Amino acid sequence: MTEFPDILIRVLRQAERVAALTGAGVSQESGLRTFRDAQTGLWQQYKPEDLASPEAFTRDPKLVWDWYAMRREKVREVQPNAGHYALAEMGHRVPHFTLITQNVDGLHRKAEQTLKVSKTFRVYPILELHGNIQRVRCSECGMVADAWEENGDVPRCAGCGGMLRPDVVWFGESLPRSELEAAVEAARGCQVFLSVGTSGIVQPAAALPFAAKNKGAVVVEVNLEPTPLTEKADFFLQGKSGEVLPELVRAVWPQA
Ligand code: OAD
Q1: Number of domains within the chain
Q2: 89 and 141 assigned to the same domain
Q3: Considering only CA atoms, which residue is closest to atom 38 of ligand 1?
Q4: Same domain (yes/no): 121, 179
Q5: Which residues form the pocket of ligand 1, taking CB atoms under 6 Å from any ligand atom?
Q6: Which of 45, 140, 203, 250 has a CA positioned 20 to 30 A from the CA of residue 168?
Q7: pLDDT digits (tens, 9 = 90+) for 111-134
């Protein structure tokens, strides 16, 4: 059982406003590879940057579509892990909780919906800064859908016939404005900001904990290893998020 500093437990227990930013590390224990893990199998010849970009889609739409189809299949096979559920429990306990994620796997929402079934549950915003792999968007007219006709090739938009693409943010693309604005507002207004399972390299998400810190928030980082945020964080909880977060929630809310 991890011992947490009393001050951290007290600050979290008393906090009215908490924000959490997550990255691929929080889904690693569900069996999903992180971005910085090497690609395997037939995809090992590619770097994510070579597939997750508008240029890659223009160059070879079928290759990009197939890579996302493989990842979507993987996401369908996995479940949220104890780290996702611990954050959902925190969302239930803290009066104003905002979950900000860079992940496109939808596992935070899955965890929230599972917990919601079991008890009356406080709803909290889940801001998907980089979109969601379960949705598609027309590359011509922008229509968004969560169901489409598969035909063995890159599916087409029912409205305009344009090619469908995953509704995720690619390298070089801007983030959805409303989600980003809400994330910045949550970072600036919170008393505690948690950064969990992210290498803290990709902007603008990586700037959020610093924005929180500048406004006086207590910053807590959960990661296997140090990141560019670590020296600025008030607490660095080194370990697997699927182990550290449930223990932290139990320490702060023993009745959880
Ligand atoms: P990364 O793969 O860059 O970083 C994963 C982080 O999680 C690393 O710091 C690991 O040390 C940590 N980690 C791995 N397993 C962990 C575990 N079990 N518990 C806790 N930490 C763990 O993934 P992200 O930081 O999410 O953007 O990458 C951010 C963005 O870079 C992605 O959203 C993507 C990529 O470019 C876009 O696609 C636009």
Answers
A1: 2
A2: no
A3: 170
A4: yes
A5: 23-25, 28-29, 34-36, 52, 102, 130, 169, 197-199, 201-202, 222-225, 227, 240-242
A6: 45
A7: 999 988 777 778 899 999 999 999
